[in-house]
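Box S1 | Example of a co-folding query
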Amino acid sequence: TDQADTATYDVIVIGAGVSGMRQLMLLREKNLSVRVLEGGGDIGGTWYWNRYPGARLDSESYTYQYAFDEELLAEWDWSELFAGQPELLAYFNRVADKYDLRRDIDFNTTVEQLHFDEERNLWTVKARGGRTYTTRFVIAATGVLSALNFPDIPGLGTFEGEWHHTGAWPHEPVDTTGKKVIVIGTGATGIQVITEVAKTAGHLTVFQRTPNWAIPLRNRPLSADDMAEIRGTYPTLFQHLQTTSSGFIHQADPTTSTDVPRDERLAHYEELYQQPGFAKWVGVYHDIATDAEANKEYGAFIEQKIRERVHDQAVADLLVPTDHLFGTKRVPCETNYYETYNRDNVRLVSLKESPILSYTPKGVLTQDGEVEADIIIIATGFEAFTGALNRIDIRGKGGLSLKEKWQFGPLTYLGIQVADFPNLFIMGGPHGKGGHGNSPRCSEKPLEWMADFASYLVANDVQRVEADPTAEKEWSEWVYEVASKLLQAGANTYVYGDNIPGRPRAYLAYAGTLPDFVQKLDDSAARGYEGFVLTR
Ligand code: NA7
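Box S1 (continued) | Returned holo structure for NA7
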């Protein structure tokens, strides 16, 4: 039965994750009428859905929190340098409670349709189950890694055991103790879940399509003294994080590797290897990201580390990446991941040598035979950047579908608007910086900018705002051009969409820096929202 929400909102925000929650607060401050629609049963987005064992930050916890509320910053203690999912969800719940966010959010409300009414300049939003809403503006805070990717393997319905995608993990704990478990996928998620499940499973089989360059997380508990020290940095920390390229605390080393003598270089790599988090990825000599030769030397160093940690060199051979250079795909952080393959109860199967043919009632059939399982864990990631939007039937002017418009790759202006889709804004999607990198830092300024813009549009009675097609063309071409110069252009990665067969290969992220991106938003606003066409 169709239920209509009879209000006409100024803004509907889709998604109550890390970005959507903050967007709601900011729009409230502007006294706009806002409703947030969320598919999940509660707030938290990524941290609501990804409850799998081992789910954890690879950003330092204190860099990942909201920066706007001094009281909250003073009160909240992080228990670990890299917080786990339960602590993160508790944090976002604390925020939602403090700001009474839930009163403006409809949960279990998965948006399926967004249709633009050209006569009235309003969007009609239809959720699963039939409930409809009317709004002037829509802000999609739908996340860049939220649309689940299921591998194209037949027969899942015939499997008699339990199966779970890591990105839609049940709320009740899944007991893997003593069980036969299969994990499919060895990305950042797979690596976390494999390490954790191996500790208790009776037997674990890991199906690996492509090995990744993983680096030690080096997590540790934070004491009261640690927190006091960290808190002392807050006044400047959050400003500083706006100056780094992706909102991480680590920054590329301006030194060129070849300017440093080889033994000094290698000693430096050893030092880096002992440091926590992305120091070993984001914080390396700058040319490791751009010069293939410099990169290969560093890759050889990491390879040696992997080989030292894995007893069986035939297994190590499978774990060392050969298809892509270090850091050209998202580098997973790990805690004893490589040592996991030294356990008697763990077996690594390379799908290159032994592809999966189907699921069966008892497990998974590969070319080399059947592997039985009580539980199958599907850690195959997401249809990144565009998936969450493409799964909604979005129709702009003349009934044009967004999915069709993007069939060869995304086209946007600033990653925020799409020509022919008036009054629709994207906060965290393709070709924008918000929502990617150290996500809360990258989205912070764009969300503030967006609230200012929405307020301006309402105050000035703007009926229609859309990306200027020329601005869209220039922005898209620029993004594609900048990306083509990175070493990353040589890797198959979700950043190019080609982790999923049949998806067009097109660069989906934003290749510039966070401060550059924020500057571009501010410049547009300062010039009366240049690049956007406003109709009163
Ligand atoms: P990723 O990084 O996309 O990893 C997915 C993994 O699943 C990766 O190892 C894939 O292999 C593998 N995969 C995907 N499709 C298949 C099929 N059909 N068969 C076998 N294996 C497959 O997703 P994650 O969830 O790990 O991480 C996503 C982000 O979330 C991450 O960056 C963190 O920021 C959090 P491939 O390498 O494509 O060959």
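DSSP finds 16 helices and 20 strands in the chain. The two ends are 36 Å apart (CA to CA).
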